[in-house]
Structures are given as structure tokens and as C-alpha cells.
Amino acid sequence: MKLLYAQEEIARHVKELGAQISRDYQDQELILLVVLKGSMLFAADLCREITAPVTLEFIRVSSYGSGTTSSGEIDFKVPLQCDIAGKHVLIVEDIIDTGLTLKVLHAYLRNQQPQSLKCCTLIDKKKYRQVDFEADYVGITMEDGFIIGYGLDYNERFRNLAGIYLLDPTNLPFQGEA
Ligand code: PRP
Ligand code: MN
Ligand code: MG
């Protein structure tokens, strides 16, 4: 596997996103809605770069299972546990790929009538977009490639890598190797 974005580079993007979000929300109370599992590390770092008064909420949705392509079916594994009606909500995602997860999630949340609903993604991957969904805040834009690390998994592994790496689809790792 090949290093694409080193820890320091990711940190620079996270800082910049945090500054933009802080400027936009200023003193407004904001719910950071962390989409588990992938955005766990990003959200942990991002929330510390935001000066607006934030609360953290979690939801878990999944569509990739053990493969490298989206199943197209979004499974709500842990539903939203709080009332977002009338609140400012910012969805925190690690990556937008086909856009299906965010499209479904956005519609589900919109339906609960938050005062505002925006989305922040660390990575916007363009090539396989199936629905036109654009995030309000984007850290890194890339064209193609299955990536792992910094929360992103292949078959549940490699989320704990500090950097983001490109996985060779013709040579997928098994068990311990990558
Ligand atoms: C990944 C990623 C995003 C979503 C993006 O989650 O974390 O949530 O897929 O893909 P899409 O735009 O094609 O829908 P995954 O389903 O792998 O679950 P995980 O976060 O638990 O790894
Ligand atoms: Mn995810
Ligand atoms: Mg995944």
C-alpha cells in the first residue's frame, strides 16, 4: 500500500475545516453528527478545531460490508438517539464516494426538521458518484482509488493507521498484511 496523505497533511486540512466551520457558526450551538464508524478519527480531531459551542451525537450507517464497492443499500445499524428538530446539525463524514450514504442520511435527517443541515467530509472522491451530492465543507478532493487509514477501513481493518493509504485492488491484503 502507498501513502497518499500523511498525518501532518491531514491535520492541516482538519485545522482549515475547523476554522471555516468556526467562522460560519460563530456562537451558534451546533450538533456534530458523527457517522460511525469511518468518521470517528476525523470527528475526534475536527471537534477540537471548532470554537463554536458543539455537542456530539452519533449514528452508524454502513453500506460497504467487506468489499471495496458500495452495496448500494444503506443499513442504519445505530439510529439517531436525539431530537434534532430546530437545531443546527453538521454531518461529519470521512468520505463521499457514490454519494448514496449521504443522500439517504440527508433525507432521513431533513425529515426531522433541523433548523439547518450541512455536511462536512474529509475526502470527496469524485469518480464513482451515483447521485449528485455535494458537501458544504470538503477537506481533500480526489478522483479515484480505494483508501484506508485514519478511520477508513478495508473489511473493518486499518482504521487505526495515522495516515491515509491507497490499497491496490489487484493485491488486497488478508489478515495481517497490507
Ligand atoms: C463508508 C464511508 C462513508 C460511505 C461513503 O462507510 O465511511 O460513510 O462509505 O460511501 P458512499 O458515498 O459510496 O455511500 P461504510 O459503509 O464502509 O461503513 P463504515 O463507516 O462503518 O466503514
Ligand atoms: Mn462510513
Ligand atoms: Mg467502511
Offer a few descriptive terms.
binds magnesium ion, 6-stranded mixed sheet, alpha/beta, binds manganese (II) ion, 3-stranded antiparallel sheet, binds 1-O-pyrophosphono-5-O-phosphono-alpha-D-ribofuranose, 3 helices, 178 residues, Rossmann fold
Question: Can you tell me about this structure?
Answer:
With 178 residues, this protein is of the alpha/beta class. The protein has a single domain, classed as Rossmann fold, CATH 3.40.50.2020. The chain has helices at 7-25, 40-47, 100-110; strands at 2-5, 30-36, 54-62, 75-78, 88-96, 116-125, 137-142, 146-148, 164-167. The model has no long low-confidence stretch (mean pLDDT 93). Bound molecules: 1-O-pyrophosphono-5-O-phosphono-alpha-D-ribofuranose (PRP), manganese (II) ion and magnesium ion.
Q: State the shape.
A: globular
Measured by DSSP, the beta-strand proportion falls in 25-35%
Judged by helices, strands and strand pairing, the structural class is alpha/beta
CATH top level? Answer: Alpha Beta
Number of helix segments?
A: 3
Multimerization state: single chain
Identify the CATH architecture.
Answer: 3-Layer(aba) Sandwich
